[in-house]
Amino acid sequence: MVAGREVDRVRCLRCCTGRVRGQESGEQLVCNSRGRRPLSSIDGDKTETMVPNWSRDGKWIYYMEDPGGHRETWKIAVDGGEKAQVSKGEMFDVTESADSRWLYYSRPASSRGVWRRAAEGGTEELVKGTEDLVFRSFDLRGNQLYFLRAGPQPGFAVKDLGTGAIRRLGPPPARVFNGPRVLAASPDGRSLMYVQEDLSLGDLMMLDLGGPQRLQK
């Protein structure tokens, strides 16, 4: 079972430089492990890029581009060279399988679930049992696919990609923010780290002939 506990003061590296059209995006930057200033930009053009992820061997970075009105998936070598198109569609959070033969990803803008496709190309397929995936909440460790699902059996679950067996791990969070990827499994698969949205705040407004204004407290 998942023992939920709050994690604070977590250091992270952001691979985006701004907010474009209401979503986190920008150019992808490679930083060193100490979190100092970026060492280089992985893509020299001015196309909007987002959601980068490393290949298993650390030689490539998968990412998405939005050249205008649609999203495409690409990869580029860390040490330079020409970028290569992976898909003409969206592939959020691309993660290679342990043997690097398969790519696992989500498509939150068009369909639910975790999807997979051969790394060399071909037809994509929905991973059975993940049809009720909560927005971008999955991670892959070895042959184990961890994910958060809604539906009749909500909660954290893990699927053994070898046997196809699915096991429930724990209850769902009270509320999950549909934004950046919200789930990560530890390298040994013994813990899950996730983001839970505990509180949302707002202002009480009143509309009159003079326009919107805040109520006096």
Strand order of the largest sheet: 5-6-7-8
Structural class: mainly beta
Q: In sequence order, what are the helices and strands, one letter per element?
A: EEEEEEEEEEEEEEEEEEEE
Largest sheet, in brief, is:
4 strands, antiparallel
Poorly predicted tracts of residues: 1-25
Number of helices: 0
Shape descriptor reads globular
Could you tell me the number of beta strands? 20
How much of the residues is beta strand, in percent? Answer: 35-45%
Distance between the termini: 45 Å
Whole-angstrom Rg: 20 Å
- What is the mean pLDDT? 78
Helicity level, as a percent range? under 10%
Keywords, separated by commas or semicolons:
4-stranded antiparallel beta sheet, 217 residues, 20 strands, globular, mainly beta
Tell me what the structure shows.
This protein is mainly β and 217 residues long. Helices cover 0% and strands 42% of the residues. The protein is built from no helices and 20 strands. The chain has strands at residues 18-20, 23-25, 29-30, 40-41, 48-54, 60-66, 72-77, 84-87, 92-96, 102-106, 114-118, 125-126, 133-141, 144-149, 155-160, 166-170, 183-185, 192-194, 205-208, 211-214. The strands form seven sheets. It has a four-stranded antiparallel beta sheet, with no helix packed on it. Strands 9-10-11-12 form a four-stranded antiparallel beta sheet, with no helix packed on it. The chain is globular. The chain starts with 17 loop residues before the first strand and ends with a strand. The model is unreliable at 1-25 (pLDDT under 50).
Q: Summed up, what is this model?
A:
The chain is built from no helices and 20 strands. The protein is mostly beta strands and 217 residues long.
